[in-house]
Amino acid sequence: MSRGVDQQVRVAIVGTGNIAGSAHLPALRGLGPEVAVVGAADVHPGALAAFAAQWDIPDTDQDVPALLARTEPDLVVVCSPPGLHSEHASAALRAGAWVWCEKPPARSLAEYDAMIAAESEGGPYAAIVFQQRYGSGTRHLAGLVRDGSLGDPLVALCQTTWYRDDAYFAVPWRGKFETEGGGPAMALGIHQIDLMLAVLGDWAEIRAMTGTLARNIETDDVSMACVRFERGTMATVVTSALSPREESYLRFDFRDATVELSHLYGYQNANWRFTPAHHCSEATEKLWPSTEDVPSSHAAALDDLLASMRAGERPKAGGASGRAALELITAMYASADSGTPVRRGDIGPGHPYYQSMRGKAAR
Predict the structure, then answer these.
(1) Domain boundaries 132-295, corresponding CATH code
(2) 2-128 — its CATH code?
(3) What pTM was computed for the model?
């Protein structure tokens, strides 16, 4: 762990918007004396002062490098707008701090790779806030897939149908490729996409469409894709910012069972549904649910990150694993714009979409 810390973890917060106060600070404070929030940074002085007063944070600065140099945190939580994620995460890593970065991890694969290049062997490392992975239901299902208990995964549905009105997109950095990176797949659907990948593993090929149907924004407000996985599984991915009845829904059809998850922003075991195939025995029915019931949450993800820090190991939601959903979304845009399929691994340095989801239009 960086700076030899083996007990209390010193934490700095970069970006004091809604997600910092609604999710990150409660998770951090829930750990009691195990962590100490020593500083916060934000470009808006009024918001920064109010945040620091609310959470009793002793040091603040509008300049991120200055705050890092003064407070010497072990962990930096990056909650700034997406256009600043790579910059702030890289600065923290170079300063010797581990990073927990909100989604989307970066605006492009190029930015993500630059961020990871700032890591050091044995730490500090960066992890992405993909808290949906850490509910016991997802971890249990991923284990059943690994050991083949449900048979081959055949068909999957990954749906993020949420509703965001014009006021939501009135925030200056939203709905723009330059500052948000992309549309709802980046801002909303990336959590369900990451969960799908955590269960099914590597994808092979994607064919996609995007559309801007109802909001006056630069990016899309709806995207749809068909994905084929390396093991042959076929999936559809639908992400919408236009759906009045909101739902996050995943369905996995295996040879021996269908497993479904319906929730909105977080789940527990009660949100899952398990349907054995008619030909299966009682033994298959007993595979579900998990013997533990841990809700998906920032707290569960933070526990895993702190364990990785203490072990000096790359976090599960870091490196190539933290990049996987971003690569799929990048390929989605490349496929939608070209009208042709894109394979995993096609988009690297020199490819038009490596630097931006806009591809050639960004030049």
Answers:
(1) 3.30.360.10
(2) 3.40.50.720
(3) 0.95
pLDDT at 281: 79
pLDDT of residue 43 exceeding 90, the answer is: yes
**Residue 259: strand pairing partners:** 252, 274
User: What residues are paired with 37 via a beta bridge?
Assistant: 11
Relative to beta strand 35-41, strand 9-14 is parallel
Give the separation between CA 302 and CA 99, rounded to whole angstroms: 11
**Confidence band, pLDDT 50/70/90 cuts, at residue 279:** very high
The arithmetic mean of pLDDT across residues 220-247, rounded, is: 98
Residues carrying CATH 3.40.50.720, the chain: 2-128
H helices present in 30-63, as ranges = 45-55
CB atoms within 10 A of CB 42: 25
- Cβ 250 vs Cβ 157: under 8 Å: yes
What pLDDT digit, counting tens, does each position of 66-78 carry? 999 999 999 999 9
**Domain limits, CATH 3.30.360.10, in the chain:** 132-295
Quickly tell me which residue has 């990785």 as its tokens. Answer: 308
Q: With b meaning 16 or more CB within 10 Å and e meaning fewer, what string describes 108-123? A: bbbbbeebbebbeeeb
Largest CA distance in the chain: 64
2: pLDDT confidence band, cut at 50, 70 and 90? very low
